[in-house]
Amino acid sequence: MKILVVSPFLPYPEKSGSRTRTMTLLKSLAGHDVFLAAFREEGEAVADDVLSGLCREHLVFSRPALPRFARWRNIVSPTPLLARRFASREAEERIRKLVTERGIDCLIAEALLVAEYVRPFQGIYRVLDAHNIEFVRAKGRTETTGQPLKRLAYSLVAARLARYERRVLGDFDLVLACSDTDRRVLERARPGLRVATVPNTVDTDAFRPAPAPPAGRTVLFTGTLWYEPNADAACRLAGEIFPLVRLEVPDATLLIVGDDPPDRVRALGRRPGVRVVGPVEDIRPWLEQAAAYAAPVRTGSGTRQKLLDAMACGLPVVTTRKGAEGLEVENGRHLLLAETAEEFRARILDVLRDEALRKRLAAGGRELVEEKYSRRAVLDASAALWREVEAGIRAHV
Fold first, then answer.
1. pLDDT (0 to 100) of residue 216
2. Can you tell me the mean pLDDT for 213-234?
3. How confident is the model at residue 75, as a pLDDT?
4. The CATH number of domain 2-201+375-395 is 3.40.50.2000
5. Distance between CA atoms of 390 and 397, rounded to whole angstroms?
6. Is residue 151's pLDDT more than 90?
7. Distance between CA 117 and CA 95 in Å, rounded?
8. Which of 175, 234, 292, 313 is the most exposed place for a label (fewest CB within 10 A)?
9. Distance (Å, whole) CA 378 – CA 372
10. Domain residues of the chain, as ranges?
11. In 3D, which of 28, 30, 25 has the Cα closest to residue 38?
């Protein structure tokens, strides 16, 4: 089976949950004839040797610049800005040429961001890998802002995205969801849609518990910080929750690690005990030095790769129900749940002070990841899915 994967980002290095998901998908396609078309960020190096090991041929395009008038045009356009963000005439022409010349059997769009590159090819099996459900994510922003005008604006954006996303879903033969929670939302949004759950994964050989888990006072938050749900969680953690922790543990420290922190996140570094580290080459050393991982996530969709990484490294996790959404976790066994600032304070202090609790959560989280979310386990399940897709394609040739 000849497969073209179109991605809005390079799968390597795996510095975000989306990249890790795309890397797992490419690995799941081993044994097929795989092609990749991906966009790179400005100045980002392309690991040609890694990509050549994953696919037969790869095309890499520079991420298009967003014209100044694009946001204004977006007000009246039937296609939301999200779907235009990666529009490139060069990419469109080269993808069309590759599909024709290579005789592609299956097209996979990695996220709604690049769905427009796949939708026009009728007669070819089309797959959408739904990293997020965009209208759910947009709707979540209406629930966290206290400003009426912003709430109205976010509501309009969410409604528009819902119309677009429902329409686009109908153009795909198969949609991959991150969790059963997302699968049910997608099935309700488009009755009759074929949806398969393919969880996010962790490379459990690379992400392992530290030989000597720290017993210090360091709390960690990680994530792509330009992403609004992560920026919101970082601000809530440093501004509302961590000062309460410091009242009882004055030497506690908070590390905020991730790419492209906006100004409001960088400003958190001026608070007592808070350090905004920013981007790092490898997140694992930061996971190894922390005693607790806290993620007061309020919005977003999909599942949180950062929680899986933390649990794989034996790091006790405190998060919200929204943060744990879509993961098969049990409160008190795999992680701790909290919602209010006071609940977070109490759970974080429990972890920092109780060695037995830390060990129990570390063991439970690691066990869950190995069983349900290891790359090895998901690859085995995905192989059967692609055999089914290939059989379906051959039956209709």
1. 81
2. 90
3. 57
4. yes
5. 11
6. no
7. 8
8. 175
9. 8
10. 2-201+375-395, 218-373
11. 25
Tell me whether the CATH fold assigned to 2-201+375-395 matches the one assigned to 218-373: yes
Q: How far apart are CA 270 and CA 261, in angstroms?
A: 14
β-strands 125-130, 2-7 pairing: unpaired
Question: Can you give the pTM of this predicted structure?
Answer: 0.90
- Please give the structure tokens belonging to residue 318: 């405190």
- Going by C-alpha positions, the residue among 280, 176, 297, 183 that lies closest to residue 233 is 297
Would you tell me the crossing angle of helices 305-312 and 355-368 to the nearest 10 degrees? 120
CA dist., res. 5 & res. 131, Å (int): 14
pLDDT of residue 143: 72
At 135, is the pLDDT very low, low, confident or very high (cuts 50, 70, 90)?
A: confident
CA distance 79 to 16: 27
How far apart (Å, rounded) are the C-alpha atoms in residues 204 and 191?
36
The mean per-residue pLDDT over the stretch 298-308 comes to 91
Q: What pLDDT was estimated at residue 72?
A: 61
Residues 315-338 pLDDT 10s: 999 999 999 999 999 999 999 999
| Tokens at 23, concatenated | 């890397």
Q: What is the pLDDT of residue 77?
A: 64
Mean pLDDT of 210-229: 87
| CATH architecture of the domain with range 218-373 | 3-Layer(aba) Sandwich (3.40)
